[in-house]
Design brief:
By secondary structure, this protein is mainly α. Helix content is about 70%, strand content about 0%. It has one domain (about 25-250): Up-down Bundle (Heme Oxygenase, Chain A). It is globular. Bound molecules: pyrroloquinoline quinone (PQQ).
Length: about 260
């Protein structure tokens, strides 16, 4: 069984008590941006052992297929959470901009969209469309984590919900790693399946520019900056939890009991 041990000391250089940290808010925009980047440097899921194994070519075919099938639930829910944010946002100009995220995933005009590209990734790793669409491989922990994201975006003020998407600041690097690591370590994957990642490398920076600009402009109070920080941490935690569930299942072989039917 493969295992990569994660050493918290390597990513958490120091802690300050929460009150000390909060008392320093609000920060000027450049410092606030630095704090947001620090959250990603510490907590983004690129450092999760499941991703480390993936990027080093150490996942089994079953585990990689499991990741693709489980991540499909995230893909499928993204437009729903973006629609929830739109439904809470009273600003017409912002809605006009934000709706492009739904188009990116559901498709628009000639573009079949990211969900379709992820279905093609499923085919490229040897799964069927039905394997993904039925969510038959979906682990409960992944479902709960993704559902928590949708609920968060439905319940929180629209600006804070938008800010929770800022994990995308850190996503292009991980997409690029997959574009080079998959053909190298998993030659059985049809390279056509990598189009999802290639497209996100272009889309994510555009999304982030917009959202980061908005957050830096509007979040100038202690309370708003703290809410953004907590939203970003919450989002990092839920991405991390998805991989915990996958690691338990595929690396440690700890299966969720399913008495009525087999996965
Ligand atoms: O593969 C990844 O590591 C990863 C991470 C994230 C993210 O950081 O939330 C997104 C994506 N991919 C992605 O493909 C995507 O479309 C996306 C949308 C969002 C969002 O919060 O609105 N995050 C992400």
């Amino acid at each position: 069984m493969n295992s990569v041990f994660y050493s918290p000391q390597t990513v958490y250089p120091s802690f300050v008590p929460k009150e000390t940290f909060v008392s320093q808010l609000p920060l000027a925009a450049p410092q606030f941006e630095e704090v947001l980047k620090q959250i990603g440097a510490n907590s983004y899921h690129d450092k999760h052992p499941f991703h480390l194994l993936m990027n080093e070519g150490k996942l089994s075919k079953e585990a990689l297929q499991g990741w693709v099938a489980n991540r499909f639930y995230y893909q499928a829910q993204i437009p729903i959470k973006d629609a929830a944010i739109l439904s809470n946002c009273p600003d017409r100009e912002l809605r006009r901009a934000w709706i492009s995220r739904i188009h990116d995933h559901d498709g628009f005009g000639e573009d079949p969209g990211g969900i379709e590209r992820w279905l093609n990734l499923g085919l490229a790793v040897g799964l069927s469309r039905e394997d993904l669409l039925s969510h038959r491989y979906l682990l409960p922990g992944v479902r709960y984590a993704v559902d928590a994201y949708v609920h968060f975006c439905r319940e929180q003020p629209w600006l804070i919900a938008m800010a929770s998407s800022l994990t995308e600041l850190f996503a292009p690097t991980i997409h690029r790693i997959r574009i080079s690591a998959f053909p190298k370590y998993y030659p059985w994957i049809d390279p056509k399946g990598l189009k999802y990642f290639e497209r996100r490398v272009e889309q994510a920076p555009r999304d982030v520019r917009f959202t980061l600009g908005l957050v830096l402009e509007k979040c100038t109070t202690q309370q708003l900056q703290l809410s953004v920080i907590e939203a970003l941490q919450f989002k990092c935690d839920l991405l991390w939890s998805m991989l915990d569930a996958l690691y338990m299942h595929y690396q440690l072989g700890i299966r969720v009991p399913r008495p009525l039917y087999a996965l």
